[in-house]
Amino acid sequence: MSATPFKHGVSPDGKTVTLTLLDNIAAFLPCAAPAANEELLNILVLDTETTGLDFETDEMVEIGVAAFQATTAGSYVKYLKTANWLQEPSKELSDIAQAITGLTRDALIGEQFDDEAINKALDWADIIIAHNAEFDYNMMAQRYPDAVKKAVWLCSSRQVNWLHHGHDSAKLSLLSYEHGFFYAMHRTEGDIHAVAYLLSKEGVDGRPYLAELLDKRSQPQFLIAITKAPYDANQHWRGRRYRWMPKKKVWWKKVTREELEAESIYISDAPGLGKKVTWTSCEIPAEKIWDKNVTDILK
Fold it and tell me: What are the structural domain ranges in the chain?
């Protein structure tokens, strides 16, 4: 791992970093013609802005998408277009949402999503990328429950191993700074362009991050559920990035096949825990990977 996470814009003496404003995705994005007969994917980078963070009670007020074509090896071929839509909510945005986005209910009066255009964009996509796919998928599923299931969703936050590449945070703004650019944050257009451009950068393996992300499109994911464990081990599971599901009273998390093998060994051998823990695992159906009710697959 390098001594500094900054990959671009570092001065020769290493004491300063110059950041460039990402203000024209078409000019910034490296695109190249594909090889003959190389398979192309229709990729939609998507972001939402909402009244708050609750899947059950909050609403989308902005949807933004940027459409690209790329090879299965993760090289961009063509930038197509960007579109965003606004919607007047039935309630005021939370104080935090207003502070972050600058949007208010009054400013959105009369705005309506173009459902026909949004459904058309979702139908076109082979791959939908979001920097927090679980959140954006579930917010989109409120209004477009069938359309969201037609493409493979990938998460640029969770499904790129940023730590392996020398970055200790998956926060989009920090990753952008560490790759030499900044952007108009917390509105959909700025966020989706930042994700798309970030994924064009190369990791420590010399491949664009988009290639690593696309590798995940056909890899199964599994649900691990700790069904019985000592009460005083709660912090232990939190520390290993498990989440608590009160309705089922289980600790759970999603993992890859390799992570499942490693985690099963860990649970069995964990000092002071192994003999006191009951757990189960199962493969997650593709349509349930990002679903807020993913734990419903547990028997």
Answer: 20-218, 221-297
Contacts of 233 (CB under 8 A, 6+ apart): 273, 276, 277
Q: What is residue 50's three-state secondary structure?
A: strand
How far apart are the C-alpha atoms of 53 and 94, rounded to whole Å? 9
Do 180 and 18 form a contact (C-beta atoms < 8 A)?
yes
Indicate the SS3 state at residue 251.
strand
Q: Residue 183 in contact with residue 190, Cβ under 8 Å?
A: yes
Label the pairing between strands 278-283 and 221-228: antiparallel
The whole-model pTM stands at 0.93
Q: How many helices (H) and strands (E) does the chain have?
A: 9, 11
Residue 38 is classified by DSSP as: -
Helix (H, G, I), strand (E, B) or coil at 294: helix
Structure tokens at 124: 């076109």
Dist. CA 246–CA 166, nearest whole Å: 35
Q: Are 82 and 64 in contact (CB under 8 A)?
A: yes
Mind giving me the DSSP string for 83-149?
EEEE---SSPPPHHHHHHH---TGGGTT----HHHHHHHHHH-SEEEETTHHHHHHHHHHH-TTGGG
Asked whether the CA dihedral 261, 265, 270, 273 is positive or negative, the reply is: positive
Coil, strand, or helix at residue 231? helix
Q: What is the pLDDT of residues 213-238, one digit of tens each?
A: 999 999 999 999 998 888 778 888 89
Q: What's the confidence (pLDDT) of residue 235?
A: 86
177 Cβ neighbours under 8 A, 6+ residues apart:
6, 17, 19
Q: Which helix or strand (DSSP H or E) is residue 66 part of?
A: strand 60-71
Q: Which fold has domain 20-218?
A: Nucleotidyltransferase; domain 5 (3.30.420)
**pLDDT band (50, 70, 90) for residue 247:** confident
- Tens-digit pLDDT profile for residues 107-128: 999 999 999 999 999 999 999 9
